[in-house]
Amino acid sequence: MISPSLASRLMPLVRCLDPETAHRAAVLALRLGLLSGPPPRPTPQLAVSAVGLRFANPVGLAAGFDKDAEVIRPLFGLGFGFVEAGGVTLRPQPGNPPPRVFRLTEDRAVINRLGLNSAGWSTIKRRLERLRADGPLPGPLFLNVAPNKDSPDPVADTARLVAEACPLVEGCVLNVSSPNTPGLRDWQAADRLGALLSAAQEARGASHTRLLVKIAPDLDPIALEAIVETAIAHGVDGLIISNTTVARPPSLRSQHAREGGGLSGAPLFAPSTALLREAARLVRGRLALIGCGGVSSADQAYAKIRAGASLVQLYTGLIYEGPGLVARILAGLAARLAADGFASIADAVGVDLAEVRG
Is 354 helix (H, G, I), strand (E, B) or coil? Predict the structure, then answer.
């Protein structure tokens, strides 16, 4: 077995593989139990209550790594406080033709145009049923759901996914922000988002499963405010801010910088955190925010929290820092809370906004 810390030191070798092969190798290693070790010890001050759920710590895995719900339990073993599987589509979907994932090593970034490749809900549902039959998980499980790109009725498909997933997960995340499915981001418009959320809420019924929406970083202030108010009006529990960006900062140096698709990693940190901060100002505590985008250190995770996030997510950071990153972030967050005199994560949420207002 390889410990997360040793695996992190081996990451330069893993990056010799093409991105999709490296990803499949990582999933296989987790599935076979080759990547394991004692998870970080629980730290009481890192425990979080958010979206009506309890988390041992605020650091989660973003959607996109475990698309088909193959290695959820081993991922919790790395120390994550929650895991988001998917995105899943109702019917199997191969996604876009390769090459479709590009490392921007000089920029500590990735561009992907996978196109929501998914084994389909029936396969993932069976896996989740087996997972639940094996006993409780260490933390909440979220499922990212989206309509097929050729869906004749995206609202009906999303409602069915929510209805059938609710008994199996603690949170359903509506993906209306992937840049790699034509027309998907159009569902962020207030009227269309409202229709989608109404159907999802009806599908959720009396279930205790939480409903969240993942939005794009490429939103102007008017669009963001409309999304926030629509989400609150329809009883959404939380927003995930944000998905990948279609922007290409002029600072990018990699030869792959102009590839089409969604950009994630270090260049996404600043714009996604700025959007998070503005969303927190608009939300005013009426729903929970999850900060996602460019997190690869404790400082960056802490910045998201201080900007208004109760929880944070990462993915691309693992590609460059390895699985030991989770434990390092948790240790760093505990140290930063202590240095600032905070007894808990909740004490730090949004403090930068309060300082600005003050």
Answer: helix
Given CA atoms 311, 292, 240, 278 in this order, what sign does their dihedral have?
positive
Catalytic: which of 178, 264, 296, 310?
A: 178
Instruction: Determine how β-strand 171-175 pairs with β-strand 141-145.
Output: parallel
Task: List, in order of start, the domains of the chain with CATH numbers.
Answer: 41-357 (3.20.20.70)
Measured in degrees and rounded to the nearest 5, phi and psi for residue 112 equal -130, 145
pTM value > 0.90: yes
Mark 168-194 as b/e (b = at least 16 C-beta within 10 Å). Answer: bbbbbbbbbbbbbbeebbebbebeebb
Contact criterion met (CB below 8 Å) for 140 and 53: yes
Residue 36 confidence (pLDDT) = 73
Task: Please give the Cα distance from 89 to 68 (Å, whole number).
Answer: 10
Residue 154 burial class via C-beta count within 10 angstroms: exposed 0-12, middle 13-18, buried 19 and up: buried
pLDDT exceeds 80 at position 109: yes
Identity of the amino acid at 296: S
pLDDT of amino acid 14: 75
pLDDT tens per residue across span 58-101: 999 999 999 999 999 999 999 999 999 999 999 999 999 999 99
**Residue 178 annotated among the catalytic residues of the structure:** yes
> Cβ distance 276 to 243 under 8 Å?
no
Phi-psi region of 62 (alpha: psi -120 to 50; beta: other; left: phi over 0): beta
Q: What is the pLDDT of residue 355?
A: 65
First to last CA, the chain: 52
Q: What is the 3-state secondary structure (H, E, C) of 157-200?
A: HHHHHHHHHCCCCCEEEEECCCCCCCCHHHHHCHHHHHHHHHHH
